[in-house]
Amino acid sequence: MKKNKLLILSILLIPLVFSLCKKDNGTLPTITTTAEYDDTPYELFIGGFPPPQFNDNPPTIEGVKLGRMLFYEKELSKDNSISCASCHLQKHAFTDPNTFSEGVDGSLGKRQAMSVFNTAWHRNEFFWDGRAHLLRDQSLMPIEDELEMKETLPNVIEKLTEREEYRLQFIRAFGDNEITAERMSLAMEQFMNTIVSNRSKYDQFLAGEISLTASEERGRDLFFTEYNPGFPDESGADCAHCHGGANFDNGQYMNNGLDVEADQDDIGREEVTGNAADRAKFKVTSLRNIEVTPPYMHDGRFATLEEVIDHYNDGIKISPTVNPALEYTTYTGLMLTEQDKADLIAFLKTLTDQELLTDERFSDPFAE
């Protein structure tokens, strides 16, 4: 009987204890639990890549964990229906198989969603037109975009502050439970910078672990061999000019001849810089995981790799800002045979990182 009275008294005291733990203005106190700040560095496996430069935001285990939570958090959107991961699906190398991603209320974006991997090695801005200087800047923009999440940052902060798991994780990542837009962006930047893709068949080939098939090897040769109209038998697909280095990109914005000037409805980089020389130029993206990231180009106009190669082979459109190297190929086209195209695609498929597509470190932390 005495034990029962003590139990009842303890239950009745819980609301009083909770109210005493609040500040006078009703907000949560700076420290509410025994969670502790932990700045243990997150260790990246960079393989053959050069060491990344994280500047003022090196990833920590707890910061990455928080960023992963936020990346998959649907409460970042107005009606709690979509997250960053809704348009950047892991099984598609963190892009969207739809031509344009669907936002809150069914609105559609204006450009095809870009892949999120190897961002730690990007050497220029983010988005197709580079309007976000840093990855942390990019991470917040979709939240307030009227075609995407349609939410406000103050509303997101209010929603997250009501959830204990976030208050605790902000303590572990930043030292206290204050939730701010800046901290959210830093955490998401940390997480996205840990999504590393460097375990493809081609990476294994470079490491001497496996061999390529005859078709893949011939495609590799075509990929890295320059266009040579004077010697057709020695001419290649000349892909590496724009898609070179460890990440198969070049850190530039280029007009790749999709449209003549009259048809350039999307002016691309020019919208950011105001420079007419940037008209219809878009960020040169990585070819890693290209097999699983259709549709292709900034507007998703090509559904298959075959269509992409046909465009570069003999479909380049001339306009004032088209890349000169691509314009040069229009005199004869790349002169690729059907077998050339098949071999080139076989090589491109060796750039698929199957482990990336299922790696639990990058998966939904809220999934059952």
Topology at a glance:
Elements: H1 2-20, H2 61-71, H3 84-87, H4 135-144, H5 153-161, H6 164-174, H7 181-193, H8 201-206, H9 214-224, E1 253-254, H10 270-273, E2 282-283, H11 305-314, H12 324-329, H13 338-349
Antiparallel strand pairs: 1-2
Helix pairs in contact: 2-6, 2-7, 4-7, 9-13
Multimeric organization: single chain
Largest sheet, described in full? 2 strands, antiparallel
Biggest sheet, strands in spatial order?
A: 1-2
Total domain count: 2
Per the CATH scheme, the topology name of the largest domain is Cytochrome Bc1 Complex, Chain D, domain 2
Reported CATH architecture of the largest domain: Orthogonal Bundle
In short:
This protein folds into two domains: 37-46 and 55-197, Cytochrome Bc1 Complex, Chain D, domain 2; 201-349, Cytochrome c-like domain (Cytochrome Bc1 Complex, Chain D, domain 2, Orthogonal Bundle), CATH 1.10.760.10.
Protein architecture, described:
This protein has helices at 2-20, 61-71, 84-87, 135-144, 153-161, 164-174, 181-193, 201-206, 214-224, 270-273, 305-314, 324-329, 338-349; strands at residues 253-254, 282-283. By secondary structure, the protein is mainly α. It folds into two domains: 37-46 and 55-197, Cytochrome Bc1 Complex, Chain D, domain 2 (Orthogonal Bundle); 201-349, Orthogonal Bundle (Cytochrome Bc1 Complex, Chain D, domain 2), CATH 1.10.760.10. Strands 1-2 form a two-stranded antiparallel sheet. Helix 2 packs antiparallel against helix 6 (164-174), helix 4 (135-144) packs across helix 7 (181-193) and helix 9 crosses helix 13.
